[in-house]
Amino acid sequence: MKATVFHGPRDVRVETVPDPTIKSPTDAIVRITRAAICGSDLHSYHGSQPVVPGFVLGHEGVGVVEELGKGVSHLKKGQRVVVAGAVACGECFFCRRGQVAQCSVSGAAVFGYGKNFAGTFGEIGGEQAEAVTVPLADYTCFPLPDSIPDDAAVFLADILPTGYFGALNGDIEPGDTVAIFGCGPVGLCSIITAQLFGPAEVIAVDNFPYRLDLARKLGATAVKVDEAQKYILERTDGRGADVAIEAVGHISALEAAFQAVRGGGTLSMVGVISDPSISFPMMAAFMKDLTFRTGLANIRSNIPHLAKLMERGKIDPRPIVSHTLALDETPYGYKIFDARSEGALKVLIKP
Question: What angle, rounded to 10 degrees, do the helices at 209-217 and 185-194 form?
Answer without folding.
Answer: 20
